[in-house]
């Protein structure tokens, strides 16, 4: 692995961090990997000033062709260095190698094409025609414009996916950006900064990247009056703080938050196929995915059979070194996260549940923040482990008494990010239509795609990322009403 960038990107130049450097840790070994630039408040201030000036004073926000050109350059340059980025992502995020060919890296890089193409064909000005409101004959034009400066705050679990799902549409729409990545995965973001500085024509200040060990740098970004939009992905608890901070200046808040998504198995489904799909979904990347289905709802009469099927499938999930191409479940991101997940396993037992499989450290993996894929049984949807996001390879299996009861349980959650239904087509479609969630997979279909808007109901967020809706999140609406003379 070549040495990754340890610099910030501010006003078009790579720079050292005012607070020095901080350690990055390999979650698979618990050993330090190296250091990353540690931004301080002065660095953030310069980054926001640069983004503000680039928006207000350069032609970036009006030059669609330049924006499409720069995003195309970025995609090509990222692809040129994809093998370096892959090794960094595996080492720093503990992302299984197989996932870097899909949603962890390659797919979001390729998906930069979508917002660029959307900007090229977007109806920036729409003629609303002539009308005579209050007797005044008027020609009306609706104009869509970028907001200004976007403060993007990202988590560690899918660092490239979240970064590009924000940078792509925000920049294509004509905004400038200050990106504040999670302290656990600074290299993934810093490498993007280096590539932008070295290999693209983005004007200075259009993209600024500040890696920082201190979460308060994110808080400052959210409250700064020079920032017009906060685009945040992370936990619901932090999202609440971001919303509060942003409220002081009434800035637009876009939130992609946590989930406790339901996997509903109807009584006419292929139980084994459904349980196998549920197991591999929740164990993927050690369960560190916001939209993973972490509650499995099965018909009460086959609860025992379902437990056996899902436990057998969980036990077959390849757990271990994320650099091994066969691995599906790597380590958790940190010791703190492993302790947090472990505390939920302890809670499951305290709440009267039991482990149908897993519950401990995988055999032969003495180092690294690993946890066995675990199935919790014997609880109802009232249990805290069935209501709160655990963010580990942990599946809670619940019994339901038919389609209506399954819907009631699935929707009885503070979250509403995603869901899955397995069953014959018509019944599954009816259940899907009544689930209170932003995306629903049916019988193994998948929603994830550049043109599909993704986001949550309820406490899973506000707004949509990706797709046309994700592009329009970064646009203001203006109407110009011109009196028609002589009418
Ligand atoms: P987190 O909320 O702890 O941190 C997310 C980011 O917010 C980090 O960059 C962090 O430094 C920053 N931050 C922390 N405190 C802040 C504050 N007060 N103000 C502003 N910024 C602050 O989340 P995490 O642990 O990095 O990521 C895991 C969480 O992210 C899970 O809850 C997961 O469900 C969620 N997530 C959601 C989606 C989605 O699209 N809905 C996608 C990925 C992850």
UniProtKB/TrEMBL annotation:
Which key words are in the record? Oxidoreductase
Q: NCBIfam families this protein is in? A: aldehy_Rv0768 (TIGR04284)
Q: Which PANTHER family match?
A: ALDEHYDE DEHYDROGENASE (PTHR42804), ALDEHYDE DEHYDROGENASE-RELATED (PTHR42804:SF1)
UniProt keyword NADP present: no
Tell me the ranges covered by the Aldehyde dehydrogenase domain, including all copies. Answer: 22-480
Pfam families found in the cross-reference section: Aldedh (PF00171)
According to the UniProt entry, its GO molecular function terms are:
oxidoreductase activity, acting on the aldehyde or oxo group of donors, NAD or NADP as acceptor
State the organism named in the record: Mycolicibacter kumamotonensis
The answer to whether UniProt assigns keyword Cell division to this entry is: no
Q: What is the name attached to this protein's record?
A: Aldehyde dehydrogenase
Please report which protein family the annotation says this sequence is part of: Belongs to the aldehyde dehydrogenase family.
Q: Please list the residues that make up the active site.
A: 256
């Amino acid at each position: 692995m070549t040495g990754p960038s340890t610099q910030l990107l501010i006003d078009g130049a790579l720079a050292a961090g005012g607070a020095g450097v901080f350690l990055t840790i390999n979650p698979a070994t618990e050993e330090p990997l190296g250091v990353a630039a540690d931004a301080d408040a002065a660095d953030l201030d310069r980054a926001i000033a640069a983004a503000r000036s680039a928006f207000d004073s350069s032609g970036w926000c009006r030059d669609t062709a330049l924006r499409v050109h720069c995003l195309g350059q970025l995609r090509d340059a990222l692809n040129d260095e994809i093998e370096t980025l892959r090794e960094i992502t595996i080492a720093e995020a503990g992302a299984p190698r197989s996932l870097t060919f899909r949603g962890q890296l390659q797919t979001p890089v390729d998906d930069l094409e979508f917002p660029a193409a959307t900007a090229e064909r977007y109806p920036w000005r729409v003629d609303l025609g002539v009308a005579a409101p209050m007797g005044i004959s008027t020609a009306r034009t609706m104009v869509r414009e970028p907001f200004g400066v976007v403060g993007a705050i990202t988590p560690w679990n899918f660092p490239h996916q979240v970064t590009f799902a924000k940078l792509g549409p925000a920049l294509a729409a004509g905004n400038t950006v200050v990106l504040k990545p999670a302290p656990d995965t600074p290299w993934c973001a810093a490498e993007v900064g280096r590539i932008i500085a070295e290999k693209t024509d983005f004007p200075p200040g259009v993209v600024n990247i500040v890696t920082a060990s201190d979460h308060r740098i994110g808080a400052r970004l959210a409250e700064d009056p020079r920032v017009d939009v906060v685009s945040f992905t992370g936990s619901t608890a932090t999202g609440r703080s971001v919303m509060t901070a942003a409220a002081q200046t009434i800035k637009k808040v876009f939130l992609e938050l946590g989930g406790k998504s339901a996997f509903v198995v109807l009584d006419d489904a292929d139980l084994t196929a459904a349980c196998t799909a549920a197991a591999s979904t929740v164990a993927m990347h050690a369960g560190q995915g916001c939209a993973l289905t972490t509650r499995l709802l099965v018909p009460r009469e086959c609860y025992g059979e379902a437990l056996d099927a899902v436990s057998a499938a969980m036990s077959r999930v390849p757990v271990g070194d994320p650099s091994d191409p066969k691995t599906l479940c790597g380590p958790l991101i940190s010791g703190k996260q492993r302790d947090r997940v472990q505390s939920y396993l302890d809670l499951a037992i305290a709440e009267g549940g039991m482990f149908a499989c897993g519950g401990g450290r995988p055999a032969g993996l003495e180092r690294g923040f690993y946890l066995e894929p675990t199935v919790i049984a014997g609880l109802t949807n009232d249990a805290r482990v069935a209501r709160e996001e655990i963010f580990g390879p942990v599946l809670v299996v619940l019994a339901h008494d038919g389609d209506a009861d399954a819907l009631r349980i699935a929707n009885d959650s503070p979250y509403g990010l995603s869901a899955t239904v397995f069953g014959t087509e018509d019944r599954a479609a009816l259940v899907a239509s009544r689930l209170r969630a932003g995306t629903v997979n049916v019988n193994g279909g998948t929603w994830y795609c550049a043109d599909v808007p993704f986001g949550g109901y309820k406490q899973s967020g506000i707004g949509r990322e990706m797709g046309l809706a994700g592009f329009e999140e970064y646009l203001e609406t203006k109407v110009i009403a011109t009196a028609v003379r002589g009418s």
